[in-house]
Amino acid sequence: MTEKSTPRYDRPFISKVYENLPGYGVDLYVGGREGASDVRLLRSHGITTVLNCAVNLDFNYVATPDEVSHDSRVGYGPAPIRYYKLGIVDGPGNPDTMMLAGFYQLRGALDQVMPEKPSYPIRDRGNLLVNCRAGRSRSVVLTALFLHLHIPQEFPALSDAIDLLRIRRELRPDEWHETPKPMLVAAAERTAHWVRLIEADRAGQPAAGALRA
């Protein structure tokens, strides 16, 4: 299935960028606002989890609120999609720790196990979508950072993962200079260094090798 967005972007609403992720067995997708807002499309691709990393974009997946809301309060309750939110600016202005938080939030979304309680009705574990407004910059660099650190034998450099995502997300070569934004790539490089130090300290080992799943 190929869902094309508006001619402005001329790429799918969502793109599968990695299949059968080692240690998890799920597929990773990257997309923009059109794909992330289409629950039927998400479910048709087996996507049960969405990480929205755009600070200037929000979604409300709650179809049936727990109670009727008055005029000044939005609806709340369980949704058919497990939804995580990270607010990254697509350009300068982000503390470096935002990218670090994004990496651990993405890994946490994959690792998290929902308890068998009525207050957690949505427990399906399926594929995961990382989105931003257009699926060109923030979502690409965050997903590439995760692949680089999670599968270093396949993506020894961050640029290796970015190159793969540019192709699988169908980004045009004439926009590669800003997809993703250079300052976000630089932040991801610094984050990769910090994560190796953090994980090595946790393991009591030198900062090298793959991360623990």
From TrEMBL:
This is Protein phosphatase. Residues 104-169 form the Tyrosine specific protein phosphatases domain.
